[in-house]
Amino acid sequence: MMIKTDYDLEMIISTEQIEQRVQALADDISNRFKEEVPILIGILNGSFIFLSDLMRAMSIDCEMDFIKLASYDGQTSTGTVKLLKDISADITGRHVVIVEDIIDSGLTIKFLRDRLKGASPKSVTIVTLLMKPAVARLEFPIEYVGFEIPPDFVVGYGLDYNQKLRHLPAIYRVKGMD
To answer: Residue 130: enclosing H or E segment and its boundaries?
Structure first.
């Protein structure tokens, strides 16, 4: 597939690799919650494609909701997290699975995990498609990681640069931005 863009991109994870890993994650999550109906909480906007594919690959029933947070301006973290849209579901006593597109510094996932734990769920599990272990500063484990990547700026499969390039079917490093 030819990608038309004004950016210099280098594919680092192919569509096929993503499909295989999403299926493996879905199988693991389905096995873990086979007697439960978890609620998947997607972090907008980046996780919507990953959450959709993950949910369709799961073999168990589940529910979903979304939350929208902001912590980036372009490719730079602002150092703070702003809540733009909250979940509408009551998660008290529920198994919650946070679905994130990428964990970079860990600021957003820590904020969300702490916020959701305040609602007294039965459990909080985190699944992320991408993780940058070289820059993530976390005091808790991430249960399900699709791919560990270097601290490059990446786009595609829901990840964006100023709201563009989400449509790309694979994960690409943006050359000249790292």
So the answer is: strand 123-131
